[in-house]
Structures are given as C-alpha cells and as structure tokens.
Amino acid sequence: MQILTTKADLQATVKACKQAGQTIGLVPTMGALHEGHASLVRRAVEENDVCFVSVFVNPTQFNNKEDLAKYPRNIERDAQLLSSIGAQYVFAPTPEEMYSAEEMNSTFAFDFAGLDQVMEGKMRPGHFNGVVQVVSRLFYLVQPDRAYFGEKDFQQLAIIHHMVERSSMAGTFGNLQIIDCPIVREASGLALSSRNERLSASEKETALAISKTLFASLEWAKEADATVAGVQQRVIDTINAVPGLEVEYYEIVDQTSLLPTDTFNHAIGCVTVYCGPVRLIDNIKY
Ligand code: PAF
C-alpha cells in the first residue's frame, strides 16, 4: 500500500491507473478508522480494480474548533488497517496541501435545495458546505468510478447524491456512482463511530440506550394508534430519561426530501444525542 500526501502525486497515480484501464473506488474518510470504514473499504476493494482511501480531517466542515481539535487522529493505526484489508492507495494530505489560505477561510456556497436547512445542517451551520467542498475536490482529484459512504451520516449521503445528480447534468464527475453502505453496529447495537473513542467505559454503556430506543420505536410505529409525532416524542422522552444522555434532535423525515413526514412510509428517524460531552448520531429506517 502506498501513502500519498500531495495532490500532484495523487493525480499522477490516478492518471497511471486510468491509462492502465483500471476502475477506481474511493472511500473518503477522516481517519480514526473502525469496522464501519473497513466495511466500505472491503466493498471498494471487491468492486474496483484499485481502491483509494482518503484520510483527512477536513477543517472546513467543523463549525466547532474544539470538536476539530479533539477529533481522534491515528494515521499509523489507520494505515495498518487499510493495508490489511487490501486498499492500494491512501491519500493523507495536510490542510495546507488541500486548500489555499483563501479556501480555508472563505465560505463555500452550494445550493442544497433545502437539504442542509434541517437536522445536522440546522445545528451545524456551514458543516455541509465544508463536506461538499472536500468531497467534490476528492472526486475531482481521484475521478473515481464509485465512491462509498456510510448510511450513519444519512443527511450527508442525501446531500452528496444531490450534488452528484446536479453535477452529472454538467458531466463534472463522469459516470460516478455513489454507493450507500449500511450502518455497522457493535453486537450491543451501538453504531460504530470515530467519536466512540472519546466515550468512557460507562458512557459507552449509557450510549446503548440510543440504538435500543430506536429499535424499540420500530415496534411502537406498528401500534394501532401510532402517529409519527407520537413516536418521535416517545423516542425523545425515552432517551432523555436516561441520566447522562440529552437529545439534541430526533426527527422522522422522508428518506429522500429529508422533510418532516406524517407517514412511516419511506421514513427515517435521525437522532443526535449528547452522551456527556460527546455528540453521537444514529438513525433508523421505518
Ligand atoms: O463522513 C466523513 O467522515 C466526512 O464527512 C467525509 C465524507 C470524509 C468528508 O470529510
């Protein structure tokens, strides 16, 4: 496995792969890799001739500087994992290599057709601008045939689909296919996340109530008098009743528009919960 740190080396490598007629799979990550990332990489390795993984903690998508500073980083461990599962190339640039000083500080503006005005977008202003800024740059540099993203960040995935659909009209990303990959959970039900590394053993135990409640809500939704608003509130109340947990939002929305819905058809419930100081997200499809 080769680690590339400059855009020039990355582009030269991509060019050589393309000239050899190889298909390219890309897995964008911010490192601190876990089994959820590994599942994306395994799939990219299986479905493409070569697999590129980016490891870059993207500063422009953090609206909270402390969160950025505390984001776990461990490139040696990440490289070991990636090599063991067959990724051929890792792109691990510095922020200065990725962005000009102007790009680092200016607000990137993209029209998300309202997808960024709800849930994570409402709570983290500018977050999705930063995500699209880095993802579109990675697509431009790597020109992948397929790019793999986890459904844990469901809103991010909806926004990336939107971006690619709009751009493909202009041919920007060629025939790029976005591949949605299911959430990977611990046996306990806890959704895997790099942020779990910041939980103490007892916080991790406490956090189990999040997925447990989401799964219970699938049953609540089947009750004869169930309403979306009722189930939504019951999830919030159940999680908030657990000492150490505080729901930031729980919204049951349409899986495509991300707008509030009053039916469980094609609906997804997205939750953000503070477990102590750590902000965790999860979701469940009804
Ligand atoms: O999901 C993530 O880890 C990040 O948002 C992504 C897609 C790698 C962009 O920095």
Characterization of this structure:
This protein has 286 residues and is an alpha/beta fold. It has helices at residues 7-19, 35-47, 65-70, 75-84, 95-98, 101-105, 119-123, 127-142, 154-170, 201-220, 228-240, and strands at residues 2-4, 24-29, 50-55, 89-91, 146-150, 177-181, 245-254, 267-275, 278-285. The protein contains eleven helices and nine strands. The strands form two sheets. Strands 1-4-3-2-5-6 form a six-stranded parallel beta sheet, sandwiched between helices. A three-stranded antiparallel beta sheet has the order 7-8-9, with helices on one face. Helix 10 packs antiparallel against helix 11 (228-240). Residues 28-30, 58, 61, 131, 134-135, 153, 156 line the site of pantoate.
Strand content: 15-25%
Separation of the first and last Cα atoms? 40 Å
CATH class of the largest domain reads Alpha Beta
Number of helices: 11
CATH topology of the largest domain: Rossmann fold
The gist of it:
With 286 residues, this protein is an alpha/beta fold. It has 2 domains: 2-181, Rossmann fold; 194-280, Pantoate-beta-alanine ligase, C-terminal domain (Pantoate--beta-alanine Ligase, Chain: A,domain 2), CATH 3.30.1300.10.
Describe the structure using short key phrases:
286 residues; alpha/beta; Rossmann fold; 2 domains; six-stranded parallel beta sheet; 11 helices
What's the structural blueprint in terms of helices and strands?
Layout: E1 2-4, H1 7-19, E2 24-29, H2 35-47, E3 50-55, H3 65-70, H4 75-84, E4 89-91, H5 95-98, H6 101-105, H7 119-123, H8 127-142, E5 146-150, H9 154-170, E6 177-181, H10 201-220, H11 228-240, E7 245-254, E8 267-275, E9 278-285
Parallel strand pairs: 1-4, 2-3, 2-5, 3-4, 5-6
Antiparallel strand pairs: 7-8, 8-9
Helix pairs in contact: 8-9, 10-11
The structure holds pantoate (PAF).
Pantoate (PAF) binds at residues 28-30, 58, 61, 131, 134-135, 153, 156.
